[in-house]
Write a structure and sequence with these properties.
Layout lengths: L41 H9 L4 H6 L1 H16 L2 H16 L6 E5 L2 E6 L4 E2 L1 H8 L4 H16 L67 H16 L2 E5 L14 E9 L7 E6 L3 E6 L3 E5 L11 H16 L3 E7 L4 E7 L6 E6 L6 H13 L13
Antiparallel strand pairs: 1-2, 2-3, 4-5, 5-6, 6-7, 7-8, 9-10, 10-11
Length: 384
């Protein structure tokens, strides 16, 4: 019989489904399964036994494990199967340090283990230990020890459930947008959205923004959304460049700023800022800005159509009551948002350091969000 994999909490399972890195965050279902005990480390347990070490003791003591790995590193490196098993064992040991730690897989990138504050690529860790000096090893042990003792962060907020559009209300229809072919310096058409196929972008393409004019249609989409929201919902609309000041990020050349405020204090306002890039920035609620496109460089390969999809989903979902914000979150006092798609197609969210804002604005945001702790309410409908 093979060696049992029972040194960590729960039943060992396979790696979670890889998460996409270059696609939208909207997705159906509840997302990848939480994996804290990954299978596949039995060969390393056998190796420990052959070296006179007790694997169960190493699993319970990261410092002892790191020092063992440092001495055994060259033997592990010579055997790919054993090295992979050691990486799984190390990752499980790290995951056991905190209740909010887990394995995460990404498309086209190494797997990591950790939480939102810290993620470790265990393959790289094993490689680094083979050449690490004593100071580096002591530093790694201290980092893991401090991380293990930090207070757990609050779990991410669940997006509020949006209200589906009542029958008889006008439907939003994307306006017709111009189509144009763009060419590279060799006169060849650029297949935006499929530029790199399944491969990685050219490293030099990250600093190149060949055709930002391909996003000009976003201004048309933004104005169509403004018209739709104004026609369907009971709102105040102010078209004034001064409202670009709502943004917490600096926009590239403001052309127009339109603030739409629902006549319900519990519903989130939206401010559309059309920029000279060309692009659109939207301030939603009190503490979050959303940029369209996120990045127009050739490497990121965004298209007007997929960017318009995101813009429409944000605006229509906020109006439907599928948006929430929290601040401050946890001991790090992060800001957070959660968004459920108005059509039920999925959800997205984000958490991190609060945006660069004055202490007064952050304090006002904290007080305001306390009043809508369950999420921003749906916008009231315009009366017939």
């Amino acid at each position: 019989m093979g060696t049992a994999e029972d040194l960590f909490e729960g039943q060992p399972t396979g790696m979670p489904e890889p998460m996409p890195r270059r696609t939208a965050l909207y997705r159906e279902g509840s997302g990848p399964a939480v994996v804290r005990h990954l299978e596949g480390y039995a060969p390393f347990v056998d190796f420990c036994s052959a070296q006179g070490a007790r694997a169960e003791e190493l699993a319970a003591d990261p410092e002892q494990l790191i020092r063992f790995l440092r001495t055994a590193g060259s033997r592990l490196a010579d055997d790919s199967t054993l090295s992979a098993a050691a990486a799984v064992f190390v990752g499980n040991t790290i995951a056991a340090l905190r209740p909010d730690a887990k394995w995460t897989a990404y498309e086209g990138a190494p797997s990591t283990v950790g939480n939102r504050a810290k993620a470790v690529e265990v393959d790289r860790l094993l490689e680094a230990l083979r050449s690490a000096d004593d100071d580096a090893v002591r530093g790694l042990i201290a980092v893991l020890s401090d991380w293990a003792q930090e207070e757990p962060d609050e779990p991410p907020a669940t997006p509020p459930r949006p209200v589906f559009r009542p029958a008889g209300q006008p439907r939003y229809v994307r306006p017709a947008l111009p189509t144009e072919t763009y060419y590279n310096s060799d006169g060849e058409p650029i297949p935006y959205g499929r530029h790199w196929g399944a491969g990685a972008p050219d490293p030099d393409s990250y600093s190149v923004d060949s055709h930002p004019e391909r996003f000009a249609g976003l201004h048309v989409v933004a104005r169509a959304l403004i018209d739709h929201l104004t026609a369907v919902y009971d709102v105040d609309v102010q078209d004034d460049p001064v409202h670009a000041g709502e943004l917490l990020m600096q926009g590239p050349g403001v052309l127009q700023a339109v603030k739409i405020s629902p006549r319900d204090p519990g519903a989130a306002a939206l401010t559309f800022v059309l920029t000279g890039y060309p692009g659109v920035m939207v301030h939603a609620g009190v503490l979050h800005d959303f940029a369209f496109p996120v990045c127009g460089c050739d490497a990121c390969d965004e298209t007007m159509e997929t960017t318009a999809d995101r813009l429409e989903l944000l605006a229509l979902s906020v109006a439907a009551g599928g948006y929430s914000e929290r601040y401050p979150v946890g001991h790090k006092r992060w800001s957070e948002y959660a968004l459920a798609a108005f059509d039920g197609s999925g959800s997205e969210g984000g958490q991190g350091e609060p945006p660069p804002a004055s202490a007064e604005r952050l304090r006002d945001a904290e007080n305001r969000l306390r009043e809508v702790a369950g999420g921003w309410r749906p916008w009231p409908l315009r009366r017939s």
